[in-house]
Amino acid sequence: MSEYDGPVVLPDDPSLGPEVQIDYPGYRSTRWRAPKRALVTLPEEFHALEGPVFGDDSVSPLDADLTRQHEGEPLGERIVVYGRVLDESGRPVPGALVEIWQANAAGRYRHQVDQHPAPLDPNFSGAGRCLTDSEGRYRFVTVKPGSYPWGNHENAWRPAHIHFSLFGRLFTQRLVTQMYFPGDPLFAFDPIFNSVRDPRSRELLIARFDLAAAQPEWALAYEWDVVMRATPFEGT
Ligand SMILES: [Fe+2]
What is the rounded (10 degree) CA torsion for 168, 172, 176, 177? Predict the structure, then answer.
């Protein structure tokens, strides 16, 4: 198949800003998920509302190690994924809840919807979470996820990725996104990756391989910083 470079479909309302022009024909689900109407501006007091607030006691340090959630160790290439959560001014966001989920090394999710013929790993659930520290840092230990087929179009395969969900310290700091690995041959063919139309923005979705942070005889490492811009619901 050829590289995907689909046209942009804009909602009918010309008053809508670019932040809601996110329907991307090559990624079929956006047909149902993209907003069809102008976004609602929340009242001013919501912008300063602190929370959700997560107590340290609800997140265990072990939650950030996806290789130690079962009797044995999962198969696959062990990796450390670390980085910082920053706000638009480059300041760290401490106490942010970072949640991840991913396929196992064979590209299979432990989920009833995923029934494609790749093996499940009895030692891998594929979900983890942590809170950022006082400098906005997070760190996970996991295995590198495999690529997997999806039914979006003929012979569609996702580049290896880890899903991220972040709750900041403000009501409007919320982000759900995906982290990718450098040099993946599937980038050019993936409508989800390419639904981010700006090439520089797409680059920001790719983690940096960090040999200096790799742990000899134990794990490779990738660094990926996340900037949490307040959502478009904040007054623009
Ligand atoms: Fe996925």
Answer: -90
